[in-house]
Write a structure and sequence with these properties.
The complex is a heterodimer. Chain A starts with a helix and ends in a 9-residue tail after the last strand. Chain A folds into two domains: about 30 residues; about 130 residues, VirB8 protein (Nuclear Transport Factor 2, Chain: A), CATH 3.10.450.230. Chain A is built from four helices and five strands; from the N terminus they run H-H-E-H-H-E-E-E-E. Helices cover about 50% and strands about 30% of the residues of chain A. The mean pLDDT of chain A is about 90. By secondary structure, chain A is of the alpha+beta class. By secondary structure, chain B is α+β, with helices and mostly antiparallel strands. Chain B has two domains: about 50 residues, no CATH class; about 140 residues, Nuclear Transport Factor 2, Chain: A, CATH 3.10.450.50. In chain B, strands 1, 2, 3, 4, 5 and 6 form a six-stranded antiparallel beta sheet that branches. In chain B, strand 5 and strand 6 form a beta hairpin. In chain B, helix 5 packs antiparallel against helix 6. The longest helix of chain B has about 35 residues. Classes of the chains: A alpha+beta, B alpha+beta. At the A-B interface, helix 1, helix 2, strand 2, strand 3 and strand 4 of A face helix 3, helix 4, strand 2, strand 3 and strand 4 of B.
Chain lengths: ~180, ~240
């Protein structure tokens, strides 16, 4: 009796604590796994990734300095894919000539942006980016105007890139 | 302890010995008649004797092993819980825009209706604008809206103004519980049936088309959900002025 009473309380306590710890470890491991494999979390992360890629790409495509045309247009190319890239590539020589003549410096600032559609399976998304574009002519004051940009993004191996970009039409009948 | 060991050894010798009537009775948990001084209230069990050395070892080592396991498992529990909490604490997760499809479309729908009602004005029914204010605005948005619409209200009756605002695009930037921020593109049609000199167009880039002017507007609204309805709590003109 003496032996059992001296051994058991300690052993029981130790076993109990170990069991509690094992339970805690199991729960922690499970919740960690669940958090890491949470589909809506992954979707939310993609949404934020798309927004920042979209805002950056829209800003890139509204930024151009005639003094560094080549790098500017290379950035345009790197921000685009699909149809938009085809358009930009086709129009590049003509565009270069125009900007060299106009000698303008265009900068853009993203005021606000939102992802309106996101399909992670097909890798396509739509964004709205409210932009302020400032065009500085060689002589005269900078001219700023707001742009209501609508963009479509496509997932590429190099990340999300713009495949379409335009301004929301004004004065048209309501479209969804 | 030495007494115990001595006792155990003795017990083992006894059990190893050729069947003794004494030992045979032991499994029936009958106390072995040993001097009381030697076996202090020991449940005399010859069967329990063989595992004794092991259980003695377990008696000493097991708590240590269990303690080590407790520490390791506890450390893992704390660490993994921390990892899970860190993952769940991602700012992206606090934003249910698009991830909660139902809520996202509810916010978009209600705010599109609110914006259309708030930024439309009909000189024949100016009371509708007041109703819209009561239904869709809260907090500082009330004052912001009043300032934005002041020119329209001042000139409305005289110019016989009809201002119609339609939300063409909207996107939920943030949706966190009962708070939301929505980016809005809206078209405005401003019709004056009475001749007037100065336009009171709301948005930028107003272009005249007869006595009807079209304007494009972009702004963000912050909204709170109270009593099942989203109300605009602030209007962010995105630094564009009014």
């Amino acid at each position: 009796m003496a032996r059992t009473t001296t051994r058991n309380p300690l052993l029981l306590a130790a076993a109990g604590l170990a069991l509690l710890a094992a339970g805690g470890a199991g729960w922690g491991g499970w919740s960690w796994y669940a958090a890491a494999h949470d589909e809506s979390a992954a979707y939310a992360a993609t949404r934020d990734e798309v927004l920042s890629a979209g805002e950056q790409a829209v800003q890139n495509l509204n930024t151009l300095d005639h003094r560094d045309l080549r790098r500017g247009l290379d950035t345009w190319r790197d921000s685009a894919t699909g149809d938009l890239l085809t358009q930009l590539t086709a129009g590049r020589p003509e565009f270069e000539r125009q900007i060299q003549q106009a000698k303008t410096v265009t900068t853009a600032k993203v005021l606000s942006g939102a992802v309106t559609e996101l399909d992670t399976r097909t890798g396509r998304a739509s964004v709205m980016v409210a932009l302020r574009v400032t065009v500085t002519p060689p002589k005269g004051a900078p001219n700023a105007k707001e742009s209501r940009m609508l963009g479509e993004l496509t997932r590429t191996p190099q990340g999300w890139k713009l495949s379409a970009l335009g301004q929301a039409p004004v004065g048209s009948a309501a479209t969804g | 302890m030495s007494t115990t060991r001595h006792l155990v050894n003795r017990r083992r010798r006894l059990s190893a010995a050729p069947p003794a009537p004494r030992a045979r009775t032991a499994p029936a948990a009958v106390p072995v008649p040993v001097p009381a001084s030697e076996a202090p209230a020991e449940p005399a069990d010859a069967e329990a004797a063989p595992p004794a050395p092991r259980s003695r070892l377990r008696g000493r080592r097991a708590p240590l092993v269990l303690a080590a396991a407790t520490v390791l498992l506890g450390a893992f529990a704390a660490w993994s819980a921390g990892q899970a909490a860190a993952l769940r604490d991602e700012p992206a997760l606090h934003n249910a825009a698009l991830t909660d499809v139902g809520r996202t479309s509810e916010v978009k729908g209600q705010l599109a209706t609110a914006v259309a009602a708030l930024f439309s004005y009909d000189h024949t029914a100016p009371a509708a604008a007041d109703r819209a204010v009561r239904a869709h605005l809260t907090g500082k948005a009330v004052e912001q809206h009043r300032a934005m619409l002041a020119p329209v209200r001042a000139q409305g009756p005289r110019q016989k103004l009809v201002l119609t605002t339609t939300v063409t695009h909207s996107g939920v930037e943030l949706l966190d519980g009962d708070r939301a921020r929505v980016l809005v593109y809206a078209d405005q049609r401003n019709t004056r049936t009475a001749a007037a000199k100065d336009a009171a167009g709301q948005g930028a880039a107003a272009k005249a088309a007869g006595d009807t002017a079209y304007g494009a507007a972009m702004f963000a609204v912050e909204a709170v959900r109270t009593g099942g309805a989203w109300r605009i709590s602030a209007i962010d003109t995105l630094g564009a002025g009014s």
